[in-house]
Design a protein that fits this description.
Elements (H helix, E strand, L loop, with lengths): L1 H19 L5 H7 L5 H33 L3 H22 L13 H10 L2 H14 L1 H20 L1 H41 L1
Length: 198
């Protein structure tokens, strides 16, 4: 039983980490904070991580109530969510990253880094899908662990980015996109199986 829970948490962390995609968005993060000192950059990324964490925890806790309010069934959300994640994965495979055209100069820790670069529709969808498929405990653990990893990565973004370079981060983003595409197809198949079985 403990092994099953650990497996579900690992699956949730992998799916959410790929969607949050801190590595693939390295060039955007560096561009948005290029005029900041190291201290200011770390403060900005700390704010972004906290904002993203709080937002996803809110969806993890209130996800079931949102479903009940709108009358959404698990199979329909698994299929719709899977399609959305598949589209995101295809965009990642084609472009190597999720590009945002509108960038605000103010409060960039919360917007646009926290939302929507770290936590966008894909991350919210993945969180609710994990909640529906694996329960609250697994979802909370997945969100907290994922953003713990994100915080460490963003804290040491400069040496990591220098080591990987633009080509390296693009390659990693595309490799991870293959995994999220496979996870998305799994959600779609699970939704269809549940719908047909029901």
């Amino acid at each position: 039983m403990a092994g099953d829970v650990a497996t579900e948490i690992l699956k949730g962390v992998i799916a959410l980490f790929i969607i949050v995609d801190p590595l693939g968005n390295f060039p955007i993060f560096m561009s948005l904070t290029k005029k900041m000192s190291t201290t200011e950059r770390r403060k900005t990324f700390r704010t972004a991580t906290l904002v993203g964490l709080i937002l996803l925890l809110c969806f993890a806790v209130a996800g079931n109530e949102i479903f009940r309010f709108f009358g959404i069934t698990l199979p329909s959300f698994l299929i719709a969510g899977g399609i959305l994640l598949l589209i995101i994965a295809i965009k990642l495979l084609i472009s190597g990253g999720l590009k945002e055209t509108a960038v605000s100069a103010e409060s960039i820790g919360a917007v646009p880094i926290g939302i929507p670069l770290l936590v966008g529709p894909g991350a919210i969808t993945t969180t609710i899908l994990t909640l529906q498929a694996s329960g609250l405990l697994v979802t909370l653990a997945s969100v907290i662990i994922t953003f713990g990893i994100v915080w460490v990565i963003l804290r040491y973004i400069e040496p990591i980015y220098k080591f990987l370079g633009k080509t390296g981060t693009t390659a990693i983003a595309r490799i991870l996109a293959m995994f999220i595409a496979a996870i998305a197809v799994g959600y779609i198949l699970e939704g269809l199986t549940t719908y047909i079985g029901g």
